[in-house]
Amino acid sequence: MKHGIRPTKKESEIIKIHKLRPSKWLIFKNLPDELHLVHRDSGNTQVISK
Questions:
Q1: Residue 5 gets which letter from DSSP?
Q2: CA geometry: angle at 10 spanning 9 and 16, to 5°?
Q3: CA 29, 17, 33 angle in degrees (round to 5)?
Q4: Which of 43, 41, 39, 44 is nearest to 7 (CA)?
Q5: pLDDT over threshold 70, residue 1
Q6: What is the pLDDT of residue 17?
Q7: Residue 31 exposed, middle or buried by CB count within 10 Å (0-12, 13-18, 19+)
Q8: Rounded to whole angstroms, what are the CA distances from 3 to 6, 7, 17, 41, 44?
Q9: What is the largest CA-CA distance in the chain?
Q10: pLDDT tens-digit profile of 9-38?
């Protein structure tokens, strides 16, 4: 599983826009145009655009 950090307030808003729960996702890569997320429990990864 990739290690991640908790999303900031601004990142949490972006995650909410994509209909995901920010409390369940961690950020392991923050690029200028996209966020790479990893799920806290299952370890699934997902890429969303900013």
A1: B
A2: 90
A3: 35
A4: 39
A5: no
A6: 97
A7: exposed
A8: 10, 13, 23, 12, 12
A9: 26
A10: 999 999 999 999 999 999 999 999 999 999
Q: Residue 10: how many CA atoms within 13 Å on its side-chain side?
A: 3
Is the pLDDT at 2 greater than 90? The verdict is no
- The burial of 13, by beta-carbon neighbours within 10 Å (0-12 exposed, 13-18 middle, 19 or more buried), is given as exposed
Q: Where are the chain's structural domains?
A: 9-49
Q: What is the pLDDT of residue 3?
A: 84
Q: For residue 4, give the 3-state DSSP assignment.
A: coil
**In sequence order, what are the residues at sequence separation of 6 or more whose Cβ sits closer than 8 angstroms to the Cβ of residue 39?**
24, 25, 26, 45, 46
Per-residue model confidence (pLDDT) at position 40: 94
